[in-house]
Amino acid sequence: MRISFRGKKFETRPALIGCTVGIAYDPMVPEILTVSYHGMEPFTARPLKIGAFCDKNPSLPVAMQPKETESSRLLNALEKKQVQSMQRRQMRSRLAATERMVGIMYRSFFEMERMPFVRDVPIQELYESPAMSEALGRLAYAADRQLFAVITQMPDVENPHS
Q: What angle (nearest 5°) sits at the alpha carbon of residue 90, between those of residues 85 and 95?
């Protein structure tokens, strides 16, 4: 328990909680109080000592103190995105160079007139197998008669009923 006297707080005994007590003091030394209560022997109350942990304005832990920012999450993300973009461009460039080298190798080894395995091969130069001819014929038949047609499997020429 504590009591307040002339703006200062003093420690007393917990048994005196809620009790009205008598206080005696020397006006020359107001830091020492003598507390009396009936049924109890008078005792000296000492000034309340408040440690650093009870300070009215405690200092914040280091982790919570304000500090100058070194970077921002937005700038870090932007930097990361730029690095990834540059890496993708480099990878595409290496891939294109590799594709050119492979194309040159195929053309020189097989004595081809143009680059193989590209999308823009003229239609008249595509290989048409017998199975492909059969599928195209069936699609043309369905289209001429405005029928629905679904290709689920390439027909086998030797076994047309498969």
A: 125
Instruction: End-to-end CA distance of the chain: give it in Å, rounded.
Output: 100
Q: What is the pLDDT of residues 75-124, one digit of tens each?
A: 889 999 999 999 999 999 999 898 888 878 888 888 887 777 778 888 88
| Cα–Cα dist 150/154, whole Å | 11
How far is Cα 141 from Cα 19, in angstroms, rounded to an integer?
A: 110
What's the pTM value of the predicted model, to 2 decimals? 0.31
- Look-up: residue for tokens 């993300």? 77
Number of Cα atoms under 13 Å in the Cβ half of residue 58: 10
Residue 30: its H or E element: strand 29-37
